[in-house]
Amino acid sequence: MANATAKPAIQIQPDQQALFRQAAQRVAELLKQTLAQRPQAFLALAGGSTPRGLYQQLGQLPTSLAPDWQRIQFFFGDERAVPPEHPESNYRMARETLFEPLGIAASQIHRIQGEAPPEQALADYRLRLQALPQQDGRPCFDLILLGMGDDGHIASLFPHSALLAETEHSVCSAELAGRGRRYSLSLPVLNQARHLLLLVSGAGKAATVQQALGTIPAQPPTLPVQQLHPQQLEWFLDQAAAQQLPGENVS
Ligand code: 6PG
Q1: Ligand 1 centroid vs 199 CA: distance in angstroms?
Q2: Ligand 1 atom 4: the closest Cα is on which residue?
Q3: How many separate domains does the chain show?
Q4: Looking at ligand 1, which atom is closest to the CA of residue 90?
Q5: CATH assignment at residue 91
Q6: Would you say 234 and 195 are in contact if contact means Cβ atoms under 8 Å apart?
Q7: Tell me, what's the pLDDT at 251?
Q8: Which residues constitute the domain of residue 165?
Q9: Does residue 72 lie within any of the structural domains?
Q10: Is the beta carbon of 47 within 6 A of some atom in ligand 1?
Q11: Cα of 40 to ligand 1 centre, how many Å?
């Protein structure tokens, strides 16, 4: 059940490498907590470029900190309509930085078939999402990782996009101006996650972070990221991305 009142937890690290290390430890901790109670954990990965460093750190965790990767089912929060070998593929990025280094079996990986006709890609992914525990007819992820664009988009839910308003389907798709076709988990699925971790790095996003988290009085929540209200939301920021938050003096 989405929780519209809980304040998000905010972790700020001095630099990007510290951000990746701390976020990797937190992801591992959350997955281990799930596996202590359930036979397997359902994780949705973020796309874009920022998570590369996080996935590399996950692949280098000492055994004592790492979850049992064989008990994790890997999904994607969003994908571009490109083949799995394409440089823009979120699956390819995860394969290179996480799946191959950890030796993740193909049976644990559930990618969105960006190369397929949209209806086929949607049908396949919706079927895969049926394997998760369901709540209100929607899949309930144990953990969803997300990045954020400098316009406040999350996954492929962009400001003013019809995908942001999708409530019927768990995964949706549209041709987006200047970005080609995208696939995305819908906002209700993001908000139904037991845990959601937002990873944001760099000065270029500081103004958006401030708008999303700052103390601008009475500004309506217009950014897609401001519509996230899962059970537990944690922001992982580096100092550069947090520099416009109240009290964050950047030396
Ligand atoms: C994608 C991502 C997208 C990404 C943000 C931030 O497929 O592009 O899912 O939501 O997280 O655009 O991207 P960067 O990490 O590259 O800044």
Answers
A1: 10
A2: 48
A3: 1
A4: 7
A5: 3.40.50.1360
A6: yes
A7: 45
A8: 9-244
A9: yes
A10: yes
A11: 27
